[in-house]
């Protein structure tokens, strides 16, 4: 191509990829075309050539004053791509805001927070991969966000929705870019790469297409690179999943810590009710111990929703009475009982047993 001949390797790589995309569109729309094998071979050749040119262009990324700078003419595209993953305004949540999960929090302190603060105390290194698994709504994502605040690190969020692409080779390129950026800053500032709904990216499926396998292979390569001996960077990959049994077994050993984030026990449920009830007015007959007893199997988000629904009953009454300028009445114990009679837990006993069995076989805290 002309761009390649005149030395503009970045634009040449783009054109090779565009040509490959056109051929892949033909492949997808005309599967019975007698030329299909030739198209596929040419497309693969274009992708290979694009990767070679991108490697030769030696795209490097540095962080200056908190802004991402790419040392090449295509810096705006790279900056935009990375901004899809870097969480600029991290949630303000901290460890002390998370109720319960004490064992999980201690494991994270041991694996991440302490090494960041005193790396000299860890001559044998520290875990770089942590898997958080358990039922939905129990605090996995909140825990990951709190980690970034505890160590004042860069928080990058990855999931199937923002990493996968219909374009051949694009998803692997994004993953490589994320880890290249993390390596560029990880020696001076902690980087948390959070993979949400990890089973969608790291799972093993019989009927997967080629792109999914290539993404998994690229992630495996990057995870292995983080564990190389002698590296003292502060890059951590934290993955969260509600379906740990779907994960490809090849990934499990890359996560040195596999932590079960269970539904809250009675003590934690009581603390959750106490926390949320601080924001509303209640009558003296509200029995928090009783509520904690009756909500076994409810997730942390379930308990928040119970308090919200009980409070909304009083707001609904206010609007129906046409006295909207007044304040709603205090929430009563009867309000909570009515809500509990209609609202069942989102986590079944069979689900809990399955999580506990998986934790017994694969958990590592």
TrEMBL record:
Matching SUPFAM superfamilies: MIT domain (SSF116846), P-loop containing nucleoside triphosphate hydrolases (SSF52540)
GO molecular function terms noted in the UniProt entry: ATP binding; ATP hydrolysis activity
Record Pfam families: AAA, AAA_lid_3, Vps4_C
InterPro entries with a match to the protein in the record: AAA+_ATPase (IPR003593), AAA_lid_3 (IPR041569), ATPase_AAA_core (IPR003959), MIT_dom_sf (IPR036181), MT-severing_AAA_ATPase (IPR050304), P-loop_NTPase (IPR027417), Spast_Vps4_C (IPR015415)
SMART domains for this protein: AAA (SM00382)
Compartment list: Cytoplasm
Subcellular location, principal: cytoplasm
Record key words, sorted: ATP-binding, Cytoplasm, Nucleotide-binding
Residues covered by the AAA+ ATPase domain: 126-265
Keyword flag Glycoprotein: no
Gene Ontology CC: cytoplasm
Protein name, entry field: AAA family ATPase
């Amino acid at each position: 191509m002309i761009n390649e001949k005149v030395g503009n390797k970045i634009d040449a790589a783009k054109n090779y990829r565009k040509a490959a995309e056109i051929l892949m569109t033909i492949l997808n729309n005309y599967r019975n075309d007698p030329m299909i094998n030739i198209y596929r071979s040419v497309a693969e050749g274009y992708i290979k050539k694009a990767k070679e040119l991108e490697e030769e262009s030696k795209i490097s990324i540095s962080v200056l004053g908190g802004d991402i700078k790419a040392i090449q003419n295509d810096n705006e595209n790279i900056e935009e791509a990375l901004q899809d993953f870097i969480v600029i305004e991290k949630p303000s949540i901290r460890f002390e805001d998370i109720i319960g999960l004490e064992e999980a929090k201690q494991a994270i302190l041991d694996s991440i927070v302490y090494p960041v603060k005193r790396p000299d105390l860890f001559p044998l290194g520290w875990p770089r991969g942590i898997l958080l698994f358990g039922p939905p709504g129990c605090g996995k994502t909140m825990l990951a966000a709190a980690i970034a605040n505890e160590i004042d690190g860069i928080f990058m969020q990855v999931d199937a929705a923002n990493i996968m692409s219909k374009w051949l080779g694009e998803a692997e390129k994004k993953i490589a870019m994320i880890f290249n950026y993390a390596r560029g800053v990880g020696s001076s500032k902690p980087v948390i790469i959070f993979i949400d709904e990890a089973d969608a990216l790291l799972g093993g499926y019989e009927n997967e297409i080629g792109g999914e396998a290539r993404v998994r292979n690229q992630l495996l390569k990057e995870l292995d690179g983080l564990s190389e001996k002698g590296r003292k960077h502060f890059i951590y990959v934290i993955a969260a999943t509600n379906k740990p049994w779907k994960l490809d077994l090849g990934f499990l050993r890359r996560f040195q810590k596999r932590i079960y984030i269970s539904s809250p026990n009675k003590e934690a449920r009581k603390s959750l009710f106490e926390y949320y009830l601080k924001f509303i007015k209640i009558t003296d007959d509200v029995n928090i111990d009783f509520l904690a007893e009756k909500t076994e199997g409810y997730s942390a988000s379930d308990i928040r929703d119970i308090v919200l629904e009980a409070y909304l009953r009083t707001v609904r009454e206010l609007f129906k009475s046409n006295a909207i300028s007044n304040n709603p009445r205090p929430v009563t114990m009867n309000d909570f009982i009515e809500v509990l009679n209609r609202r069942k837990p989102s986590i079944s006993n069979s689900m809990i047993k399955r999580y506990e069995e998986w934790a017994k076989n694969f958990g590592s805290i």
